[in-house]
Amino acid sequence: MIVGDWRSARVVEVAPATSTARVLHVEVPGWPGSDPGQHVDIRLTAEDGYQAVRSYSLGSYGSAPTIELAVDEIPDGEVSPYLVRDVLPGDELEVKGPLGGYFVWRPGGAQPVQLIAGGSGIVPLMAMARARTDATADVPFRLLYSVRTPQDAIYREELGNGIAAGGVDVTWAYTRSAPPEWQGRVGRVDKAALATSVWPADRMPVVYVCGPTGFVEHVADTLVELGHDARRVKTERFGGA
Question: How far apart, in whole angstroms, are the C-alpha atoms of residue 3 and residue 110?
């Protein structure tokens, strides 16, 4: 059912992603389809009529009526704790979308693409990586994914197998602790890490950066310092300014 811009939806599957995150598959009848990188609004209504709305990026893309969300819990949040800890298959939600037309990637271009994610910022970039893999496109794709520890990585198994095998060059950055076999540095993504892990500015890549506000602003500013055209650096952030 559609009421205004809101569609009634039903949770069909839930799966743990990390200790604080969950992947939800949600069936949305009449779903019009989405481009890689878009998001939706989710609305919850309490028994007393109180409503809370939050935006969540789509890990899926295309016209299939079941969409995928990967939600990381914000302890003081009004929506994410319910989606991560309480929602069950069969539960109903309200969905508005797809939303957003700036932070999207569509197959067909030839320019190198650089994806840079911090934490749950991987979700819309995962949709882009999946689209690139599914399209068997030959456009060069790189992904730099920064997480605190290996256990905090959403989609870790898929990134290490299907996405990497599909032609996306995946580089990991660990800010607190790394796997035992790790031989790289551990720490914040800095200028040196970006210089060695992303496409150089002279390749004129299109760059997509998603994550917490501080992470996104730091990465975007550093990329410009490295010579990247700010107009080719697309950002999406969450959290306070």
Answer: 40
86-128 pLDDT, tens digit per residue, is 999 999 999 999 999 999 999 888 889 999 999 999 999 999 9
Could you give the residue ranges of the DSSP H alpha helices within the chain?
80-81, 122-134, 156-158, 164-165, 191-197, 213-225
Give the domain ranges of the chain: 2-99, 113-238
Spell out the residues 6+ positions from residue 214 whose beta carbon is closer than 8 angstroms to its own.
239
DSSP E strands: which ranges in the chain? 2-3, 6-18, 21-27, 39-45, 51-57, 66-72, 92-99, 113-118, 141-147, 168-174, 206-212, 233-238
Are 39 and 87 contacting, i.e. CB atoms less than 8 angstroms apart?
A: no
What CATH number does the domain located at 113-238 have? 3.40.50.80
Q: Please list the alpha-helical segments (H only) found in 40-151.
A: 80-81, 122-134
- For the entire predicted model, the pTM comes to 0.95
Query: How far apart, in Å, are the Cα atoms of 126 and each of 145, 146, 155, 216?
Result: 11, 14, 8, 17
The CATH classification number of 2-99 equals 2.40.30.10
